[in-house]
Amino acid sequence: MPATKKKPTPEFRSEDIERKFWAGHDSTEFIDWQSAQRRKFPNLKPALPGFGGLRGGATPPPSS
After folding, report:
1. Taking the CB of residue 55, how many other CB atoms lie within 10 A of it?
2. Cα–Cα distance between 60 and 47 in angstroms, integer?
3. Quick check: helix, strand or coil at residue 33?
4. Could you list the pLDDT tens digit for every one of the 64 residues in the chain?
């Protein structure tokens, strides 16, 4: 499959504007996921208690 030209990733003034943008756009228009590579983050720390570790007001699915 030939590589298609992707749109440049926009720059955002705030995280809220970025969140709204990605809620209405498909990332495959901007990112070539076929050429993506896995990365490890060995120094990443867990979220602090009380902050939930989730962003944007998301809630985890109920456990069964």
Report:
1. 10
2. 15
3. helix
4. 556 788 898 999 999 999 999 999 999 999 888 988 999 989 988 877 666 555 555 556 666 6
